[in-house]
From TrEMBL:
Entries under Gene3D superfamilies matching the protein: Baseplate protein-like domain - beta roll fold, Baseplate protein-like domains, Baseplate protein-like domains - 2 layer sandwich fold
Organism this protein belongs to: Serratia symbiotica
Domain of life assignment: Bacteria
Record-linked SUPFAM superfamilies: Phage tail proteins
Identification of the protein by name: Phage tail protein
Record lineage: Bacteria, Pseudomonadati, Pseudomonadota, Gammaproteobacteria, Enterobacterales
Domain Baseplate hub protein gp44/GpP-like second: from-to ranges: 97-178
Residue ranges occupied by any Baseplate hub protein gp44-like N-terminal domain in the UniProt entry: 11-94
Amino acid composition bias (Basic residues), ranges on this chain: 348-359
Tail protein NMB1110-like C-terminal domain: residues covered: 272-340
Domain called Tail protein NMB1110-like third: residue spans: 212-270
Pfam families the UniProt entry points to: Gp44-like_2nd (PF22255), GpP-like_1st (PF21683), NMB1110-like_C (PF22174), NMB1110_3rd (PF22630)
InterPro entries for the chain: Baseplate-like_2-layer_sand (IPR023399), Baseplate_GpP (IPR026276), Gp44/GpP-like_2nd (IPR053981), GpP-like_N (IPR049354), NMB1110-like_3rd (IPR054482), NMB1110-like_C (IPR054034)
Region listing for Disordered, in residue ranges: 348-371
Length: 371
């Protein structure tokens, strides 16, 4: 195993049979909520002729030691040549890039299930390594698809109709599902006033009320069919009692198939609002946890900060590796409240643990009205 968190590790970019790991600077991003995670590398003193394998559109793999960080493609190459200078910039994204860039091969509007979207849109674009990560079999809920929609937009709509979300992991596998909040924390990040045991370089905490709501109501209707009449009064209201003042949100959904779909939409809106109300950014040395595991989105981590009054578990939503020649190798983690994002993928794993003096989400979130 490579040395842990000592700055000696290097990120290697492999394109075809060519690899390089001596960078002027680099950044590698991975975010569960952002499609097509990106990376950028810059190289100085480049050889006069680039290897034939280094081309825009080529398959690329990012590694450190024996571990894969990201699999995807080279999007752009910038070749800068001046007097006694030759530098190169390489930019790329993960394996979902083709889904973000390309339209779904659909020429007439239709409704499609998630399974149909995978078979008819995702796989024909070359994304064939796919894993469903959810506790229960997926219901056959359909999402509307229109000509001109990108493949990623169609996939996202179909996944959300089943209470799930798509993202791509390091080896290029497309995962459709949600986090399992029963998994243990991968590390403990510490910031004590006396400095004993500290492993955090920086810790920033932001609380924002502008996106929070005390009450979310979804109003909807459902079209009729040969077997059932249409329904025009579907409604669900969800209340967050942790918001101490009246801040309502009302959303109208044009067409729904069931009361359960309206209830899910209301719960998701409230969960998303709660998610945006708290942001923690942590910066640590190196690429790995103390146990040697690479930092990655979807992990859970314990954070203890005396000055912030924090001692609890948080969810890693975004991770950035950065460094370069003469620079410290750093990991920046974007952390959100644990147990809130996509809670319906693994219902039994909903966060039950409470931190010191902290109220769990589920004790302050109540569904008060169903249509």
């Amino acid at each position: 195993m490579p040395s842990l968190n000592d700055g000696a590790e290097r990120i290697t970019l492999r394109i075809g049979g060519v690899s390089h790991n001596d960078w002027l600077d680099f950044e590698v991003d991975s975010d569960l909520q952002t499609p097509a995670d990106g990376w950028s590398f810059s190289v100085g003193n480049v050889e006069a002729v680039l290897p034939a394998e280094v081309q825009a559109g080529a398959r690329a793999e990012l590694r450190t030691g024996d571990d894969v960080i990201m699999t995807g493609q080279v999007d752009e190459i910038t070749d800068n040549i001046g007097r006694n200078q030759h530098s190169l910039g390489l930019f790329g994204r993960d394996a979902s890039a083709v889904l973000v860039d390309c339209s779904a091969p659909i020429f007439t509007a239709r409704d499609m299930t998630l399974q149909e979207v995978i078979a008819q849109i995702v796989k024909p674009l070359g994304v064939t390594a796919i894993r469903i990560q959810a506790e229960k079999p997926l219901p056959s809920k359909k999402a509307s698809v229109d000509p001109g929609d990108t493949a990623w937009d169609v996939l996202k709509k179909a996944a959300e109709a089943s209470g799930l979300w798509p993202w791509v992991i390091a080896d290029g596998t497309l995962v459709i599902g949600g986090p399992d909040y029963s998994t243990p924390a991968v590390d403990t990040l510490i910031m004590r006033e006396d400095g004993q045991g500290n492993n955090l370089l920086r810790l920033s905490v932001t609380r924002n009320v502008s996106a929070r709501y005390s009450e979310v109501t979804v109003l909807a209707q459902g079209h009729g069919s040969a077997k059932a009449d249409g329904k025009h009064d579907r409604r669900c209201t969800v209340r967050d009692t942790s918001v101490p003042f009246y801040r309502p949100l009302i959303e109208v959904v044009a067409d729904t198939d069931s009361d359960e779909e309206v209830q899910f939409r209301a719960r998701k809106l409230m969960a998303d609002a709660r998610l945006q109300g708290f942001l923690m950014t942590a910066v640590v040395k190196g690429l790995r946890t103390t146990s040697g595991q690479l930092w990655e989105p979807g992990q859970r981590v314990q954070v203890k900060s005396e000055k912030h009054g924090i001692d609890d578990i948080y969810f890693v939503m975004h991770r950035r590796f950065s460094g370069g020649r003469g620079q410290q190798l750093l990991t920046t983690l974007t952390l959100r409240e644990d147990g809130i994002w996509l809670p319906d993928a693994f219902p039994k794993s909903k966060r039950k643990r409470k931190g010191k003096g902290k109220k769990a989400l589920w004790s302050s979130w109540e569904q008060i009205d169903n249509g």
